[in-house]
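Researcher: Let's try something more involved. This one mixes different molecule types, so please make sure each is placed in the same coordinate frame as the others.
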Amino acid sequence: MTPDEPFIRWDWIVANLDDIGERTWEHVLMTVIAVVVGFVISFSLSLLIVRRRRLYGPIIGLSGLLYAIPSLGLFALLIPLTGVTLLTAEVALVSYTLLILVRNIVAGFDGVPRDVLESAVGMGYGPWQLLWRVQLPLALPTIVAGLRIATVTTVGLVAVTALIGQSNLGSLIVQRGIRASFPTAIMVGAFGSVLLGLLADLGFVALQRRLTPWTRARSG
Amino acid sequence: MTSTAAVVTLDHISKRYGPPGGPSAVGDLSLTIPAGEICVLVGPSGCGKTTTMKMINRLIEPTGGRITIDGEDVMAIPAVELRRRIGYVIQQVGLFPHLTVGANVAVVPRLLRWPEARIRERVEELLDLVRLEPATYRDRYPAALSGGERQRVGVARALAADPPLMLMDEPFGAVDPILRDRLQNELLRLQARVHKTIVFVTHDVDEAIKMADRIAVLQRGGVLAQYDTPDAILAGPASEFVEHFVGADRGLKRLSLLRVRDLPLNDPLTASVGEPGGDLRRRLEAAGADYALLLDADRRPLGWIGRRDLRDDDSVAADDATPGSPTLQPETTLRDALSTMLGSSVQMGVVVDEREQVLGLLSVDAISDVLRRGASQ
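Model: All components are placed in one shared frame. Result:
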């Protein structure tokens, strides 16, 4: 960076739009994989917990432990096992979603009013019908709240995986920005990542409004 | 609406928690609930009334004994299928907050996979039945309803698949007394139309007396203390426990079960306006009576005329009569009748029909006779 160079070089951004677009797409993809896989695992674990309450402590404890490991440390632990691969990155990203998602999904199920469950069972809902048609819809606001936090967190963490060679908005910061002392790339990577997080969050809010119309029905 | 009702029998059923030989929640209970009747299970907390009810739809499985619905053993029917055939209403109603009123009512028909057109029609019919305008209420969510409206939707939902049996677990326990009274009346009005077999759990004796065709009084440990009509239980409590449970004012409670039309009325000696005073006096003397009831031209009561007030050379006029008797309708409960009569100057009620014509007389003595006689049925 030369002293008379502007802090942000818009011409560079314009010239590299294709590249930035690709990195953004990769960023989105890595986030989606992590959140989807994390959700599937968390949902299954939560169902287990709802059936067998004793499992709540151990499962939350373990996910808490995973959550507490610094991300760089976790990458370092995983590289001997899975190498410098997308798998390594995703294993780490997924493990960070578990604590947030399991907690929220279980809280969502726990929050379904007892009288609603009792009348549902009393009217002849089978266990699966109860889950899909009563418990899940009513737990949805809490579950979506968990997904929002997990997704925003993951968007941030995906950038860190650039340190283990993953290509995304984070690699704009790491390779172009820091190594080449080029602030424009750092700004693009950072702002892009923040913007993605915001958009994802707004997306979930919109999704929840669509899926849970009853939460807005107070007066007829 | 086509309606069927089921006979429910409980045959030596028991429910024990914990090891065999331990204390039982329900012990060796036998009951037959006739089709189309409201059977109220009543008793203090811990008497097993809710447990007993929940064994009927297998929310709780009995430890011993047999429950049949129209002769069919409930344990032989898969629990989920059984429950879809039984209406179920609980105290907190338990409406699904994520479904509209219409969808809540449609729950069991949907589980039974009725065609959508038939479901839509049925929802309409049921909302009408519980007096909720379908166009206004069908698409509302439960959060937008008042307590009373929710309770009505709960009843409509329980009736949706036209079950021959309804279980109601303290359905009006959480609403204020004025609303409770109204909902009770609505349920009775509804029952007069649908004639379901209803098992109704409450801890409130007055509610039991009002709602029941038959009351099962349970005491601690799920022991049946008495099973009979409300009137029979009030007139002849089977044990000290029942006597204590129904309360010291059971006589007065009985009076609210009986109506004026249930008693034989006395024929009054009547006089009409314009009758010569001498004639009336002679009639009174012949009958050994002191007073005659004066009627107007339409046979409506004007008041009483005493023998001593009559003059031979004058005819009876309308303003000779002394009013003071309360007028009673055949539908008046004896409790209300007694209360009115005690509060008036002449303790003799004049019973009139809807055109205000005299049907007969009711005395305080006649009411106390009923209480002395014991059960009327």
